[in-house]
Design brief:
alpha/beta; Rossmann fold; 2 domains; 7-stranded mixed sheet; two-stranded antiparallel ribbon; globular
């Protein structure tokens, strides 16, 4: 490759990876339509909400939208990685911190080139060579070690560089997250080409993130590591809830987060991923699936009669997993019942709720999740409940996302 080709390639990387989509796009895990929906719901609230709540934080969409509009917000998340991510995204950064992070970035890249640098060990991701080429893994191991040398644990500079590190590692990966069954490209861009440009990728990501971090917020955001089924630890009441809980679609929410969580040390083995999925709502990763087979429902859970018929139809389908999936749906319903029951204790009188959730199909049987939510909310005492379809989820006409709304009595 001649010098002209190298410059063109480097310019292409800078253009491609220096794109700024605001703090929502720091890990490219927040679809633009999600931000749009939350912004519209926040703006449509009569007057100004005194306290916004998201019991299923995820990547922090509601918290960040609320902060951008000047609204105080609390959010709860069971995954410690997502707690760190949202805290990093919603924090205010001084000009001194941003400038320090820029300088540290230069130092970090310089250290990656030192021959005496001891790289961190590759994370124990199963079949890791499918995820990253050997040059990419070598660079990431050196980059992670350099970040540890140049920053202090828990410092804002380290957090900002780690966000850039996460964006770099996913840019370098062969994984494609465009389907429920994750796929891998056989020839990644890096396999084909230019390992010398990997530091430029990281530098471009840092530049974009620091540009976004210059925006400050007047609102107060609290990110609480906790369980949405047990909200008794909260000491506030809320007049607006906007959230998108896990869908009942048997998709592991650890799946897309595994690369980040392994490289940052939040996961050290597959069993931990399964344990976290079992603790969460709607997860079926590893040991979570085996535990579902022995799971027994709580008789105190409210189960609509129509759901009992739906569960029976799925359990008796001509598929060996029918009974397991019926258990999965029943446990999902029980978990959401516990959540709604707990939510009622932290709502202001007249407080509004919006749950963005999609329905699902299991072996040809439709699970109308929006109806399940509506019936449960009505049973608990919420009023003026409505389920408004907001968009199609994919090419299947019956699969939709809904805004399930209501008011506390």
């Amino acid at each position: 490759m001649n010098s002209a080709d190298s410059l063109l390639q480097r310019a292409d990387y800078t253009q491609k990876y220096n794109h700024s989509a605001g703090r929502h796009g720091w890990l490219r895990l927040t679809p633009a339509y999600s931000v749009k929906i939350v912004d519209e719901l926040l703006s449509a609230f009569p007057g100004k909400p005194s306290h916004v709540f998201d019991p299923f934080c995820g990547t922090g969409t509601t918290a960040l939208c609320a902060a951008s509009l000047g609204f105080d917000a609390d959010t709860v998340e069971i995954n410690p990685f997502l707690v760190w991510l949202t805290e990093t995204k919603t924090a205010n950064y001084s000009q001194a911190v941003i400038q320090a992070a820029r300088e540290v970035c230069k130092e970090t890249i310089a250290i990656t080139r030192k021959p005496d640098l001891i790289p961190v060990a590759e994370p124990p991701i199963y079949n890791i060579d499918r995820w990253w080429s050997k040059p990419a893994r070598d660079f990431l191991c050196r980059l992670r070690a350099a970040i540890e040398q140049t920053t202090i644990a828990g410092s804002p500079e380290r957090s900002l560089l780690l966000i850039a590190f996460c964006r770099t590692l996913i840019t370098l990966s062969n994984a494609a997250f465009n389907h429920q069954s994750m796929s891998f490209r056989t020839n990644s861009q890096i396999d084909l080409g230019f390992p010398a440009d990997m530091p430029d990728m990281f530098r471009a990501h840092v530049s974009a993130i620091l540009s976004d971090a210059m925006k400050t917020y007047d609102a107060l955001t609290r990110v609480i590591h906790g369980d949405a089924r047990v909200l008794s630890q909260l000491d506030d009441k809320f007049d607006l809830v906007i959230t998108s809980p896990p869908y009942a679609n048997r998709m592991s929410y650890i799946r897309e987060l595994r690369p980040y969580m392994y490289w940052l040390g939040y996961l050290t083995n597959g069993r931990e991923a399964g344990e976290l999925d079992w603790q969460a709502i709607g997860g079926t990763w590893g040991i979570a699936t085996s535990r579902l087979a022995a799971w027994k429902p709580d008789k105190n859970t409210f189960i609509p009669k129509w759901l009992a018929r739906t569960l029976d139809a799925i359990a008796h389908t001509n598929n060996t997993n029918g009974r397991l999936l019926a258990n999965y749906i029943a446990k999902y319903a029980e978990d959401m019942w516990r959540h709604f029951t707990s939510l009622a204790n932290v709502m202001c009188p007249g407080g509004k709720i919006h749950y963005i959730v999609g329905n699902s199909v299991f072996y040809g049987t439709l699970l109308p999740t929006e109806r399940l939510y509506s019936d449960m909310l009505a049973e608990i005492g919420f009023e003026r409940i409505a389920a408004r379809p907001i968009r199609k989820r994919n090419s299947k006409k019956e699969l939709l996302e809904f805004d399930v709304s209501g008011s506390w009595k």
